[in-house]
Give the backbone structure.
Amino acid sequence: MTKTLNGIAASDGIAVAPAYLLVEPDLSFTKKAIEDVGAEVLRFKKAITDSGAEVEAIRDVAKKTLGEEESQVFEAHLMILNDPEFTGAIETEIKNAKENAEVALDATAQNFIAIFEGMTDNPYMQERAADVRDVTKRVMAHLLGKQLPDPASIDHEVVVVAHDLTPSDTAQLNKKFVKGFVTDVGGRTAHSAIMARSLELPAVVGTETITTDVENGQLLVVDGLDGSAVILPSDAEVTKFEAKGAAFKKQKAEWRKLKDEPSTTADGKHFLIAANIGTPNDMTGVKDNGAEAVGLYRTEFLYMNSSDFPTEDDQFAAYKAVIEGMDGKPVVIRTMDIGGDKHLDYWDLPDEMNPFLGIRAIRLSLKNEAIFRTQLRALLRASAFGRLCIMFPMIGALGELRKAKQILKEEHEALSKQGVKIGKYEIGMMIEVPAAAILADQFAKEVDFFSIGTNDLIQYTMAADRGNDNVSYLYQPYNPSVLRLIKHTIDAAHAAGIWVGMCGEAAGDATMFPILLSMGLDEYSMSATSILRIRSEMKRIDTRDLAGLADKAVNESLTNADNEQLVADFMAKHSK
Ligand code: PEP
Ligand code: MG
């Protein structure tokens, strides 16, 4: 039976493929006394053999589809499965305690994990704790007769279905086979949605029930244009969605003709359109979509995609690659924004009640100076290779900005003394905490530029978690309260003679765009895939028609919807 679920359109496009459930089964178990210990040991040995065969198969597919490096983790898993110290300890436990294999496996694994995690002076061994956890899960699943999802083993086209996808899950999706994804929870500006846009994967989030409604292998449509998912579509529906997907592709082909055109309005005014990136690999999208700058490089993905802190040299290589790749065009690199929904497996941070209000971004950097200084040195060294703008995230108080600048200055001086070549660079900050927007006139005296992060600015202004679909109705970019903060920031920047951009998702929003243009925003940085659509819209607007639009939006409109209407009326009347 066909079933349609409505959610939030998180990334444009249409995909039709069988569902692949990325959902962990329930691995809870009960304790049982065992009489036939020999048979229980055999049952355990079989679970080990089956797990080993499964890991070998996954490793082989991962090697082919993801590459040698990504498949290494499975070698580590095989080593544990073949390690007599580990398996022998479990067998002994079964024999001694006369308990079922699940209990022995769990108890022994906990011991091993505690020992590895205690090796605080040996980060390599500490990381083995994660491997033991993974292997234990797999063996447990075999003992309980359950199946674990294995995204690395996907070798045919699928639509991934998950309760939620973390940014690191998203990073591991193999675009060759994963054609789109649908989740129970999430918001348009959650990081997995942002990544889906840069991967050009159609995505719908916040459907609430997709993981229980669809079964593995059932045909599934993802409509990332209107935010719906259709389970077991009829042939007629498949044809309809395929036609919709084809029309969208055709529209994209039209936009693509603007790739090498300058970003100018109908009356010839130029405004910079830039791209947001997460890794140097995203540079292909930057080039293909004709970005005039990189307006936000989210460096935390460099940390998230590795199994330990990236070294200064690793970071230097990544930053240099992006800076050089832009051939002298500006590149805004933001210092790491870990915390909130972005975690590192290898960094044990305190559990917090409200991670988005907790130790995140610059707060974490200032508390962990050694890690921060390593990143700043890498940035300073990379500055010699092009036009670098260094940006600090989540600044809320002047003291934070001054401290960050002071540390940057110290590292600059130390490197200069060592004779390291450092280029010219600008220093800027994100405006994403309402306190900073309100005090923008003061902050503007201390930086070279601002970049407005609307994803967080909206979440903090409306007090609505950006990843929580229950409050996604409060993601209101055109709400006059949000627009007042934005306008105040732009006016303050211009009064102080500095440039101001926007790198939140609202910068690539077609309704927001005329309002921002009317406010005089200088730079618009967005997912690379939004660039050509906005460039096409820019060409249809004459800035002389914009007079008064921003004032109306902040002073006369009362709601988000009022401003949607305001822009629709404006475009209907003035669009060229
Ligand atoms: C923002 O908050 O708008 C932003 C660009 O930063 P991030 O999405 O990485 O939090
Ligand atoms: Mg942010």
